[in-house]
Model the fold of this input.
Amino acid sequence: MQLSKKYQSISPSSTLSIDSKYKALKAAGIDVVGFGAGEPDFDTPQHIKDAAIRAINSGYTKYTPASGMIELKEAICKKFREENGLSYGIENIVVSNGAKHSLMNSLGAILNPGDEVILPAPYWVSYYEMILLSDGVPVILHTSEENDFKFNAKDLEALITPKTKALILNTPGNPTGMVYTEEELRAIANVIEEHDIFVISDEIYEQLVYDMDTPPSIASLGENIKNRTIIVNGVSKTYAMTGWRIGYTAANSEITKLMSNVQSHYTSNPNSIAQHAAIAALEGPQHSVLEMKKAFNERRLYMVERMNCIPGVSCIKPQGAFYVMMNITKLLGKTAGNRKIDGSDSFAQLFLELNNVAVVPCSGFGNDNYVRWSYATSMDNIKKGLDRLEEFINNLR
Ligand code: PMP
Ligand code: GLU
Done:
């Protein structure tokens, strides 16, 4: 029997599959070090857990409005007002099952079959497949390390066709860690307005930036661009809440209504207890975010400095998120244990097999000359992983 051609064309998430390989090896008692998972290694702060326990004990265990509780939407609006200088009402907010779900809602609300979505590369692996799942056509905008993996307004304009519907903008970016300045965003916003397209602005890493304050949101640059922007954000990264599955969007009320209607059929509300926890996350004390950021920053500086001292590999310093893109171009063509490194997949496979270190190949991120290391892991693990990298490279022929 012929199963769905669309579903059969979708690859599994490489980030999640590396992480599960790492976890399986670890469970088998192997001394493996994992740099795959893009999730904070910190526990969810206690006051957030307490709010969830209180919610259970108070009987908040039933359906909420499908697009999220009003109290949570109000907390999200307050966050936008205070942190991003953006004014939204609850009619602009949909709370979903993680930012992944918010992204699917966003693409679903704006795309018709064959619409093109411009996707800057290197991109987070799921964007590509999500565009396909939404019947869109990904159009890749390549960027280079020399330009800090950032595109400019001209690069964007060159790819716009009558079929272009939207740009996906991820700042701070996964996997690049790069942040767009207000000036760069202004030029990009002008192109978006001129060509009458939308922008999906994924701001999930906005609080995890190291040499600056909260970076600007493209939506904050004027009413016209705000009306064309769907902001995607969530509590997963900022509050170490990846397992709770709460993401949200802010968009004009017409788009919000479409997303909310579809979500009411697809999933109903996101978990009611997790919504109560998200209110506590957004409204409660923020010192745990600062502590986590401090630790990430120390690891970032160490990893970047040490990696650039290892002959054969290099990286640029990321400004946000918790990833380092390691350039492996100089290792291509070399052999490890009689097997050739011909791209990021073989590098990652051999490094895992021979030295028990899990990193993510960037083949699935639109650039095969890099592998991604997540520094959301302990300093001890980072030291161990980089020691093993040196060993791996020393043994190459
Ligand atoms: N956007 C980016 C750029 C991400 O790295 C992630 C991480 N999974 C997500 C969205 C999805 O986050 P969530 O866990 O809330 O679905
Ligand atoms: N976003 C994280 C990553 O890139 C988590 C895994 C995933 O959802 O892809 O590793």
Notes: The mean pLDDT is 97. DSSP finds 14 helices and 14 strands in the chain.
